[in-house]
Amino acid sequence: MSVNVTKAYLPPLEEYVGYLEGIWERGWLTNNGPLVQRLEAELSSYLGNSLVQFTSNGTIALQIAIKALELSGEIITTPFSYVATTTAILWENCEPLFVDIEDRTFCIDAAKIEAAITPRTTGILATHVYGYPCDVLAIEDIARRHNLKVIYDGAHAFGVQVHGRSLLSYGDLTTCSFHATKLFHTVEGGAIIMQDKALARKVWLYKSFGHIGDEYFSLGVNGKNSEFHAAMGLCNLPRVESFIVARRQLAELYRQELAGLPLQFPQPHEPSLAYNYAYFPVLFENEEAMHRVKDALGAEEVNTRRYFFPSLNKLPYHTGAACPVSEDASVRVLSLPFYQDLNPDDVRRICTLIKKALS
Length: 359
Fold this sequence. Notes:
Aspartate Aminotransferase, domain 2
């Protein structure tokens, strides 16, 4: 029987249908409907009263964030992330300036950021990789001293807390993806999280064509999301903590079963971290070993993903400076099947196949 690398949680159908009946009764499908407003309010509460704008996806959230902060010229960013982080910068006619990553968290190396800043640098866009936090305090200090704006790509970081608060509350803006593959999902969707009310209004206008009724205030795009997607979010949000508990147990089982093998796992620096167990990545000794395991698992219908590959400074349409740590990690990393409904017997079978492939 095949095993997916991720699997979207679907709530009881009757629960979702209950929301659909309300949508049918109201006839209000999109354009800031009551379910969207309710989801934003519940997300705000969950995230410690941050200001939340629900968007159509995580990529448009990144693009709107860059535009709302009026970034131009160079944006310092990570080469170890999903491609949307880089392409959002390029889409907004800015220049990605790659800074290499740490070899423990695989997040951007804050100690290398300052040396990369030039007179053309206006911002930092960093990713909380696999939900492990960037060095948010060091980055905040660098940004303050150099008058830079900070955006975090928190696509993996929903439910994570650090220094006693939501990881998504750091930076000038944090974006999030609520794609079906994520810990918390709305089928398709995303969000922009911030603390400043004036900035939140600007973001709202940017995602809503820049106007309210017949009054036009700014440029804008269609970054809105629908009542149907909000309904899925309202079903799933109360279950997030139980998802995290189940994932923690599976992660512990994986680590127990893989103990003693020549594998590397991400290691956070921050002792106050409350983690969400978003993914289960492993790094092999070399690319050949990674392929050997990937092929062996694939032959048994166990799906894996090279997440992230390639190192983004090696993209064919935009290359950047050498980032040896990222380039090395990107060819050795493999994300194993991981979701709260994964059968523990499948975890044991996967680990047995890995042991066999590496023996």
